[in-house]
Amino acid sequence: MEETFHHALKFKTDLCIGCSHCTGVCPTGAIHVEGGHPVLEPNRCIDCGHCYQACPVNAIYIEQDDFQTIYNYACPVILLPSTFSAQFPEKISQRAILSAIYHLGFKYIYEVEKSVDVLHEVICERIKDRDVEHPVISTFCPAVVRLIQVKFPSLIPNLLLVRPPMDITSLYIRKNLTDRGVPPEDIGIFYVAPCAAKIAAIKSPVGETKAQTDGVINMNYLYNKVFRVIKQGEYQLRDDEFDFHPISRRSLLWTMTGGEINDLPQGRNLAIDDIDNVSEFLEKVENGDVEGVDYLELRACDESCAGGILCGSNRFLVAERQKKRAAQKSVKVSPKENRLLTYKEYLKDNISVGKVEPRSMDKLDEDIGVAMRKMKKSFELNSNLPQVDCRICGYQSCKALSDAVVNGQADIRQCIFVQRIMELTDKMSTAESIRLQRNIWGDQKLDKDSLKGMAINEL
Known about the structure:
By secondary structure, the chain is of the alpha/beta class. It folds into three domains: 1-62, Alpha-Beta Plaits (2-Layer Sandwich), CATH 3.30.70; 67-349, no CATH class; 363-447, no CATH class. Helix content is 36%, strand content 10%. It is built from 16 helices and eleven strands. The chain has a four-stranded parallel beta sheet, sandwiched between helices.
């Protein structure tokens, strides 16, 4: 059965103004416009969030689970990215942040990156293994994993097939709490997501059948909720901080750009952030233009997780605060300080994930013969289009329109230049041209009343 991508990004068509900004910024061309509204091609979308950031009217939102579901569990646990504390101004203490979170009803707070020291050890082993495809590509960022599935399927063998810190720490939490006598059905683990891709990864994990967490909370939602509790003084400061503080410097820097490669064995290891930069670099790797690289740390967001689209603060300030906190920590921590390390062998035994399947966005048909004919036809169409990539046809590029045409999803006459040529040669009437534009952009943009108040004759 074909794997289904769950998407955390959703459209509010009633708010959409049909500006096509989302179409233009999508790194995989997953969005086109029909009837004045965006249409998502689910097989192409990687939940990077570029469309969310580009939308000028907030017509794109990111789903989350109902916060009230935490109360369905006798032992609700919050799995907190270390960058969450860095969202707050420095005048708000970590003790206050933790106390406010406990006030909301959570029994335990664990930082996601507690498991990084275990993961780091596994990465070092894989890099040294010359039977493993190089460069080894990090799977920390789920948007990058999906990008490779969709756009660079030939690089799938290079992916590091291990669980991310979120899942490794969740495995530890369940094992540790059940060992301490907590009934498994009482444990509910809720992850605080800094981006849409992490939510999508929980709802439909790649290489796994089920995520290790029970729910997901948007980071900006929790940030606002905690900030309000602190501002209104609705909580009591607690002295106990459970498993929060014992974490290494390496772990705190892991989510920053360069964090993964910071302490790897000597070799050629590169860190690249922002999905457009990542896509451009992967093209070079796929084409054989980059050689001799051992490890690639790739992140979809600028400044990595500090720049997640669900972060509530400026990414540069978040990165600065995170690095300041890391500077105060030791490079490594002992099993006595970080009890997760006492479960290291158990976690390493369960750290691998299954096979990752490609989802090529360029696949035009299941039948290879039909696909080749379509590819040839698409190439011919694209060669005769103007290569302006103006998006007036509703698609991101001339190539995207050509592919849609050969798949029966679009009409070549949607191209405004084709329309003008056909009008000049009396092969299309103005009425037919307008009808095609209405199909793409809806009635409102072609309503003659929209010209009222415009001094057209004076222009």
